[in-house]
Amino acid sequence: MFFVDYRLKLAKRMLFNKKGSLIGAVLAVTIGILVIHVNFVIFQGLFDAIVRDISNYRNGDILVTDEADFIDKSDLSLSNWFERIPYVKAATPRLSSTAEMNMTKNGKLIEETRVPIVGVDPFRDVLASTVHETVTDGSYVFSRNSIVLGSNVAEDLGGAQVGDSVKVLVVDRWGHDQIRRFTVSGIAKSPGGQGFDYTAVVHIDTLRDMMNRPGDTGSFMVKLNDPSKAFEVKEFFLRSFPNDDFIAETIEESAEQQLAGFRSGIAMINMIGYFGMMSSAFAIVTIQMMLVNGKTKEIGVMRAIGAKRKDILLIFIFQGMIIGAIGAGVGTAAGLGYTVYAKETKMSFNNSLPLEVSYNWEKIIQTALTSFALAIIASLYPSYRATKLLPVEAMRTV
User: Fold this and answer.
1) Rounded distance, CA 331 to CA 269, Å?
2) In whole angstroms, what is the distance from residue 357 CA to residue 355 CA?
3) 125: closest CA among 219, 210, 189?
4) Same domain, residue pair 352 and 294
5) Sorting pLDDT into bands at 50, 70 and 90, what band is 248?
6) pLDDT over 70 at 390, yes or no
7) Which residues of 131-166 are buried (b: 16+ CB within 10 A; e: fewer)?
8) Which pLDDT does position 5 carry in this prediction?
9) Start and end of every ABC3 transporter permease C-terminal domain (predicted)?
10) Are residues 233 and 333 in the same domain?
11) Second label for 295, Cα 20 to 30 Å away, from 18, 27, 142, 380?
């Protein structure tokens, strides 16, 4: 134990005598860790923000559809079934179709085709979804002849405004054109365009009438108080309706196609970050080789008075541990500082989509330990080179 303490103290003394080299090595580790933290905050935050908005606007924490066609159970019965579960905040029906729209603006007829149109229950939808919060002008759907236009749809219609009249054509189940005139009650614009910016929203009963599907529902959006219980609630629902053709999916399952590409991108960015950390290890190798070359006389003296090669090896490995520990500590602190800043300032991507910033302690600890391990590994070669110096030759080079 005495020799370990002596070698550690000697390693600290030799390292801190070369403050420039120590600072350079610590900075190399710090930058490597900081790059990984910044990448995580931005790209994982963007991924989580997209998941958040898909959940809040479109799919909920659980999305229920019918394998064959439309859900024919009543809205009230399914909503009541879900809402008796303590984990469930609310459940709301949705019905979707495609419409053609036209309106007269400044004496000019403007038409827009293939506009997605969604029917909602305005009383339940405000509990299970936050689409109503994206209405920046006017109000959400409040009657059967009102329509909310996404900001892009309104722009394509020549700048539609609240109070304008819009004619909507939907093809019903029999292939017949059904035309209704609606009054624009609101314009929806979501941060990052993840909401219904390219969609029109009407009352679900009105869309059912136009599609000639009384009582039918396209999907049920279920929002939970505790999203971690999604799989449990989903499985309970499917077990409760074994004779129906229901499909129940968690947000990860229902949005898999949309999220798969983002996952691949995040994996690549993380790989680039770890390559950056490896480059910091090469910097440590270079700096420690300089330390070995600068301490040739000291190494020769230690060997001459009886220090073994193992002692020299441990001295420089201890130096790598010191560099790794300080660098991991400073880098982690800097990364956490950036994460706190991003969270408190509600950092957004491209000044539009607010990032969903979180503290992933498992990744934080993993990054710190990886950088510490790399610093030790990087010190092995310089340590080995130091042990190869013979006492006489080391003294002769001075």
Assistant:
1) 18
2) 6
3) 219
4) yes
5) very high
6) no
7) bbebbebbebbeeeebbbbbbbbbebbbebebebeb
8) 63
9) 271-389
10) no
11) 27
3-class SS letters over 70-137: CECCCHHHHHHHHHCCCCEEEEEEEEEEEEEEEEEECCEEEEEEEEEEEEECHHHHHHHCCHHHHEEE
Phi, psi of 319 (to 5 degrees): -60, -40
Residues 216 and 112 in one domain: yes
Angle of helix 19-39 relative to helix 361-387, nearest 10 degrees, comes to 150
Please indicate, yes or no, whether residues 159 and 22 belong to a single structural domain of this protein. Answer: no
Distances, alpha carbon 334 to alpha carbons 154, 173, 331, in Å: 45, 59, 5
Average pLDDT over residues 74-87: 94
Answering whether pTM is above 0.85, one says no
Query: Shortest CA distance to 190 belongs to which of 147, 125, 136, 118?
Result: 136
Amino acid at site 207: L
Model confidence over 95-145: pLDDT tens digits?
A: 999 999 999 988 899 999 999 999 999 999 999 999 999 999 999 998 999
Asked whether the predicted pLDDT for residue 1 surpasses 50, the reply is: no
For the stretch 288-297, pLDDT in tens is: 777 666 666 6
pLDDT in tens, 175-213: 999 999 999 999 999 987 778 999 999 999 999 999 999
Beta carbons within 8 Å of 19's beta carbon, 6+ residues apart: none
Tokens coding 331: 């880098």
Q: What's the total number of domains in the chain?
A: 2
| Secondary structure tally for the chain: helices H, strands E | 14, 12
Q: Where are the beta strands (DSSP E) in 154-230?
A: 165-171, 177-188, 200-203, 219-224
Extract the tokens encoding 12. Answer: 């600290």
- Domain span at 365: 6-54+259-396
Alpha carbon distance 91, 93 (integer Å): 7
- Do residues 50 and 257 touch, judged by C-beta distance below 8 A? no
Identify whether the C-beta of residue 163 lies closer than 8 Å to the C-beta of residue 202. no
The dihedral of CA 197, 202, 203, 204: what is its sign? negative
Residue 240 tokens read as 């409760």
In a domain, 320, yes or no: yes
**For the chain, what percent of residues have pLDDT higher than 90?**
49
Q: What is the mean pLDDT of the chain?
A: 86
